[in-house]
Write a structure and sequence with these properties.
4 copies of one chain form a homotetramer.
Chain A lengths: L1 E5 L4 H11 L5 E5 L9 H4 L20 E6 L10 H7 E6 L9 H8 L12 E3 L2 H10 L2 E3 L3 H15 L8 E7 L14 H4 L3 E5 L5 H8 L4 E8 L5 E8 L6 H12 L5 E3 L21 E7 L6 E8 L3 H16 L16
Parallel strand pairs in A: 1-2, 1-3, 3-4, 4-6, 5-6, 7-9, 11-12
Antiparallel strand pairs in A: 7-10, 8-9, 10-13, 12-13
Chain lengths: ~350, ~350, ~350, ~350
């Protein structure tokens, strides 16, 4: 398949190129960037040296492709979706433009009117674990936000099994610096960002909108930047509507995830890595999930999940989705083991 | 005043020496360590080179002092408290041995019988912000645990003003590696600990016991190790028993902390450092406190606090307590500004 | 091919397992560790969860294999080499036991008598770039030390072209913490090791012995620990025996490395990554090489090389060597691109 | 004394404010920044909250002061030196404008004509250890560059004792990110800068010019960025013009530094901190110096020095210079011990 990556100079775009360039069934025919137009891709993504001699083309030089991946800043993809759709049969959007189904919610969270409301129903939610059958038949897929994805993987089985209570669910997320993108500013300046534990969003993070679309509960997402480049870990503090036993929690998670190629349940009694940790996931498409039940009450639990925000939180998930769309083995090009120590 | 530090080769002990060696009214006459007995102190704490030519003595060579600081591992101080009390008028204990007033609670959390229950009522809680008057008259003071202290500073004003609801309070704490001490083991091996986001205690952390002694609510402390040497930041997710406005929250915190020399309320509308962050507190005795109210409901808030775990979370707090006991200016020897960037 | 890894619980052993478990032509039949005997491998190497259900066996339970990899501490392999050789046709040793050909040099650098001098000539030096033909025919191969390897890749072309002057060559190496192994001690305790710039060996590092075996010059290796888990970068400060032009340096390095699958010459005029850097090499088998000539004199240059110490500096190089020995494509199982950012 | 800081929003400016605000004999009357004019200083330097309620004024609002500190970008101070000199008796410049005495050298290294050659001889070199007597009588002082200062402290005793050989001296410097300033760009973006070992200047760094002004030898400065915010460590590889014994090296360094309040000779036989390391110097005005002699030849040595680039490499050195100029105790306001661990 011939694919183009629009907006390929950012971190999600670069990660997508890394995965696509090694994918056995894919040929990357174009990667665009207005800022770096004409430069070799490996000048911006130095890890790709030796793997491609392609140069960045401009956003307006889009070739006919089987698939177009959109890695543009939020709010751009929707303006050009008509023209993209004339160039490719499949469009996989990694921005937030087509994630929120309800235009009122879109307006509430993004403070602007959605420009293409008629396109919204054409987009399928790119969450293989819960929308695989829709994805198989879709032409247009919206990849969820990184923190939404990590949170949904933790909460969806509980939501679907109807065990969540009505108390506010507190999601305390810790995130690395690559999530804030490749554009330098004061908040990601090394001397300021290094070694920080910076609560930058106490509530009202936009990924909450995606959560609330799937989880019919009061959910609060609190996000803290920690010293890390790649990776997200979330601790979701939940209450149950009845007493739960550990055995039942195990069976709920096993029910939804036992056959999932990229979900591992991590809950060890000994060793250092008893719960999910992002650092051993760098470069992998895993979402590791664990939980700790309050055994005294049976009413409270902490659900932990961890991902590489650029892979399962973006580019890797997009490749997994393409594998499904194309009818290939879902793990094709995504079998990197992850490093330890790192 | 002549002071001795028992158990001076660990990180809390070393930090205490740093503060005491520059304190204008204090002379350090002994620092003990069985492991490093006979070695120069600056061989273990290299920052002290040029500030003392003292060598470590053994734990059994305790001199008569005005004050003895105990920085021993948990469970040791209680065994020798009688003999310490014969050597010094004032004892300031930085271990957990005399923090929990109720021996049943002590047994529950530490899984051993308290050896000196008659000593427990003699010890005053070393929290200047809430027990200053008792400390002034005390001879024996128990310094609180680092995470308990950071959490109490965040929650005590709400508890005292009786605005907390009955829902479980979730304290999501992030901590650096110095808190796990100076003894090498697999969990603090650099290659394993570096860059981690490791939830190591989902609930039931021993510092919960200290919290529950002061806060009459259901409190859960979840602790995650992050890449950091010094520092703790906690996000306390609270609910109120009635609707609260931001103005009221401000006045509650101002009421308790306006005159406190080491508490700053951090709640900025702009800039990077809008909430408390531990990294700019390294070496200082500050506890910075901030909060974010859910304006939609007025019922939920995130309270954020940050400290240097070795200073306000231990050695600095102990010096502040001594300043109170001795009737000196409470900030004596504790006026370091903190570094930025770092 | 059936392979066994002896000493598989350390970092080099774990990295080797990561590479072997995904190698298409290899089956790992045993991994030994006396310390973790009976434990699942993924309890020690958490990244391998889902890739193997093998448990560690003891060092004395060695099975007949096609290949045995030895990842033991220095000085152990030589004691058992006779028995290993009865279990496998090919032995690839990653320790230092068979690297030094001259037993007097071995004694000088390792302060012990070599126990198996008759085995020394049977071992071929595991440097594919310079000993490929010997490796093809070898049964026993000694993988070079990580810093020796990085340094040799930088210097060998200059040595072979006879352009190096007689002045002492200064190799200033910067290294990550994984190189010091998986056994906790004070020097690799996170709070002590974090953020350090620690010169731990000014001269006389044992890898100098390996350098001097190949480079007939006065060579000094100065090693500094920096904040990093994986990776080595070396700056080799060389003088030439005549004036050299940049064009000639290019042609020297191209001559030796143009056809090498794992050597890239990195010397960019613009961009951030103008010279080799280890961080984008994590997990890859590359040795990136660059140089900067003193254009004013033509007599001095800095040669820079970077590797992942666990891959090209050990486990990856060993797999590359096995690919050569087995007659397979030399890059089999070694085609990971490397991550950016990381 | 009343002092003004011109260019106070950068990292050197902020560090200077930290030191001046706690200096017992100094009152800061103005701090300028065109970018942040009108903002509270503590919004930019969050560590200063509670220590000053001053706001930034514009560069053109300079008040009459006893002392003006100039922390402007290179090339700006010289344009306004006449007007500054009318506002203050003493000017202490932390930029590079008045460091190089020879205008031809200035042109060579800075690629622009010096605008104020007549001012050059009025400026004294701000190196207390070697120019204390000139500083005592000076009105205008130029503080040396951070890497030049660290290197000069290592080399000057050897130069003055005439023991250096003619071989090129290789200074391999490792530096933190704060040295590149507070303006965000791609090279100091956290995700790019984090965990790097980036050789960014192989030779020809501008601080070489300052070195060559003092050391009459062939000197090469190679600079590598490592993961660190504050701190510089240099390894200077020197050769001697005759055989030297360790005892002699000791006596050379003792001769020059025994009475220096901010130089410590670090050369331990045991322990972790055997040579100078920048991390325990954060916030201090120390320059730690150590050395390792090649005992076999007596002809080669590695001289190691470490500083906090913002303190002894800039702001702290400037305060030390002011203490000398004013006739105060040279250590006034500079007695912070340094943190460990950190």
């Amino acid at each position: 398949m011939k694919v183009s990556v629009i907006g390929a100079s950012g971190y999600i775009g670069g990660e997508l190129l890394r995965l696509l360039l090694q994918h056995p069934n894919i040929e990357v025919i174009a990667a665009t960037s207005n800022q770096y137009k004409g430069d070799y891709i490996f000048n911006v993504h130095p890890n790709l040296r030796g793997y491609t001699s392609l140069k960045f083309s401009g956003h307006d030089e889009i070739l006919s492709s089987d698939v177009i991946f959109l890695c543009l800043p939020h709010g751009i993809a929707m303006s050009h979706i008509d023209s993209y759709s004339q160039k490719a049969k499949y469009i996989i959007d990694l921005s937030s433009d087509f994630r929120i189904k309800d235009i009122n919610q879109y307006y509430k969270w993004y403070k602007k009117k959605h420009e293409q409301p008629t396109w919204l129903p054409k987009f399928v939610s790119g969450i293989p674990e819960f929308y695989r059958e829709s994805i198989e038949k879709a032409n247009y897929i919206a990849i969820p936000g990184c923190m939404a994805n990590a949170s949904l993987m933790a909460l969806m089985p509980l939501e679907k099994e109807n065990v969540l209570g009505n108390h506010r669910i507190i999601i305390d997320a810790k995130t690395g610096s690559s999530g804030s993108g490749a554009t330098p500013n004061l908040s990601n300046l090394h001397a300021q960002r290094s070694g920080t534990v910076r609560l930058f969003k106490s509530m009202g993070h936009r990924h909450e909108a995606e959560l609330k679309q799937e989880i019919n509960k009061d959910v609060q997402l609190t996000v803290t930047s920690v010293e890390l480049v790649r990776g997200i870990q979330i601790s979701a503090h939940v209450t149950f509507n009845r007493e739960i036993q550990e055995k039942e929690l195990w069976s709920i998670y096993r029910k939804y995830y036992n056959d999932e190629p990229f979900i591992r349940i991590i809950k060890q009694k000994k060793g250092l890595y008893r719960y999910p940790e992002p650092k051993i996931l760098s470069g992998t498409n895993y979402c590791d999930i664990g939980f700790s039940l309050d055994q005294e009450t049976g009413k409270h639990a902490v659900i932990i999940s961890a991902i590489d925000n650029l892979v399962k939180g973006g580019a890797g998930n997009a490749v997994q989705v393409l594998n499904i769309v194309a009818g290939w083995d879902e793990t094709l090009g995504l079998n990197f083991i992850g490093l330890h120590p790192i």
